[in-house]
Amino acid sequence: MKAAYITETGPAESIQFGDLDAPTVGDGQLLIRNHAVSVNPIDTYVRSGLVAFDLPSPFIPGSDAAGIVEAVGDGVDSFAVGDRVWCTNQGLLGRQGTFAQQIAIDAQWCFPLPEGIDFSTAAANALVGVTAHLGLFRCGALQPGETVCVIGGTGGVGAMVVQMAKAAGASVITTAGTDEKCQRATELGADHVVNYSTDSIAESVKRIAPEGVNLYWETRRMPNFDEAIDLLAPRGRMVVMAGRDSRPEFPVGPFYVKECSLHGFVMFKASPQEMRHCADDMNRWMSEGKLRANIAHQLPLSDAAEAHRIQEAENVGGKIVLTA
Q: What is the pTM of this model?
């Protein structure tokens, strides 16, 4: 089979594309013929060695995929040959990734793909959608009627947060840096979009939500905690999902006086049961047209190295999808 792989960690150019032995399905696994995979920042961190795992050699990067089941291992009764599926949480914690024509993965990380949802949409929404769902509902306990402010509403995760918060009945404020991205955020369902290139985020959010926001989602590597906590309503929740090396100042006094809470998490530590709960909602919302893919680039699998270069070099403004 054709696959994109590395033999040692390094830059995007270390990704090779060629023939590898097709995987065999093991107990509790599915063999999937991939139709689409997508690129995530964590994929580039693992490939470069920034996030260190013990990796098989050769190692196939990639967390997400969507395709059709070709074989079912012993002990699996929830899927059958011919089923359409999508998966995430691969290429992490030493598991082989998804950038190949065929993959064999544990069935617990796979979810059914309803008819009417194309493979590219499922692959693009996989990791970022699970991330958004975990942050909004498991960590942030979002309720209908509440107000959410998400910084960066057209990025991979941000676009999912905007759409899921709307699907759950929340009012959504988001930010973007260009008129084009502001229009895209509006198309994704945001009620209010702040162009941070021309307007103050703090002043705009206070004008829109004078009583404060119930949930503040930070996507930047360096959070501005003074600003965020000032914008939170009493008992507001803040979610952070980036900034591995950042050490910003934190206003302890305003934070505890408001009875706020701060939540940090990484999706790949979620349990299969938690991810399945996310997937059930995502499948329903994708089927209803409430959760759309925010795809910025589509390339063939043979261009995996270029896809990683794009992910690292650009403010992508969406997802990169590769067709297998």
A: 0.95
